[in-house]
Design goal:
Blueprint (H helix, E strand, L loop, with lengths): L1 H23 L6 E4 L5 E5 L4 H16 L13 H36 L10 H9 L2 H17 L14 H31 L2 H8 L4 H18 L2 H19 L4 H9 L5 E2 L2 E2 L4 H29 L9
Antiparallel strand pairs: 1-2, 3-4
């Protein structure tokens, strides 16, 4: 069963990536209507299947002949450059992924334990706040606090922008982990609340099993399957926030350069529009979608280990 789901996910990825490439390779030629003085009046676009097929052929021909996806103005192959920048971004995404899972689950357990106590202000209430307030607000507040500490001479010598300092990497990992952590805390709390009402929990309590063992050995273990279903969502949050954080902190990683290539041209020239570097965009798109695929595969493997019937065994 798990194997079939993995194959299905790979097929879905291939289909999704193919559709993205078809959209990227849409013909962009258009007719420009000018006024008597040569001023721009209107742009007329008409889709053509033959032009689309020609665009696809022009993209695939050098790729299949071994020439690759092209080079940038520094004569760097687009694919190699995309992989190099993706590795730089992975220094943020991978730690943020595990931090979000570990602290998100820990926060969810704390929220569940303090749900009926005065400490719920530090539990559920902070989780709701973290989900309600945009993480950009938290990022700005943290930066303002660090700037204030720097002015006061308490914390000095920090380099929080760019990709050349360890502290910039650490802070970006923290920024990236904020919302996914609160999201997983909420998911964990919901999973534990569902398990708390199960029949086996009531039976275990009647037998006098300690609450600590009941929570961590039984409820959390069974709830992990529901939690790991959201692995894909966590990665999507990380990647979407990555664009904002890399641009905000000038961390020149994959998201930063992907945005630069997409917005490379906003001018309309005679006979064509939006002169995009399709080779570069295709390279970055490939790596980003592969990352999403890997997250889905991790989710399926985790479910297979946590739920025996997911891999064809007997529960």
């Amino acid at each position: 069963m798990m194997g079939n789901r993995i194959v299905k996910m790979v097929i879905q990825w291939l289909a999704a990536f193919s559709i993205l490439m078809l959209l990227l390779l849409l013909p962009r030629e258009m007719e420009i209507e000018s006024g008597p003085s040569g001023e721009f009046v209107a742009a007329h676009y008409e889709y053509s299947i033959s032009a689309h097929a020609e665009s696809i052929q022009q993209f695939l021909t050098p790729l299949l002949s071994g020439e690759g996806l092209g080079t940038d103005r520094y004569d760097r192959p687009f694919f190699d450059h995309a992989w190099e920048m993706m590795q730089r971004s992975l220094w943020l995404v991978v730690p943020a992924f595990f931090i979000s899972i570990f602290f998100g689950i820990a926060k969810g357990v704390f929220d569940f334990q303090t749900r009926n106590r005065k400490r719920r202000i530090a539990g559920l209430h902070t989780t709701w706040l973290g989900l309600s307030v945009p993480d950009l607000v938290f990022i700005i507040v943290i930066q303002m606090i660090l700037m204030y500490l720097n002015i006061k001479g308490i914390v000095t010598g920090l380099s929080l922008y760019g990709a050349g300092s360890p502290e910039a990497v650490v802070m970006n990992v923290i920024y990236l982990s904020i919302f996914p952590m609160f999201y997983l805390a909420n998911v964990t709390f919901s999973a534990l609340s569902d398990e708390n009402g199960a029949e086996y929990i009531r039976t275990a309590r009647a037998k006098g099993i300690p609450s600590f063992k009941l929570l961590y050995v039984h409820m959390l273990k069974n709830g992990l399957a529901k939690i790991f279903v959201h692995t894909n969502t966590v990665v999507l949050y990380l990647l979407s926030n990555l664009f904002v954080i890399e641009y905000l902190t000038q961390y020149r990683g994959a998201a930063y350069y992907f945005k630069e290539y997409i917005t490379a041209s906003s001018k309309i020239y005679d006979g064509q529009s939006l002169m995009l570097q399709t080779g570069a965009i295709a390279s970055f798109t490939f790596f980003f979608t592969v990352l999403i695929l890997l997250a889905g595969l991790i989710s399926q493997v985790a479910r297979g280990f946590l739920l025996p019937h997911e891999r064809g065994g007997r529960s």
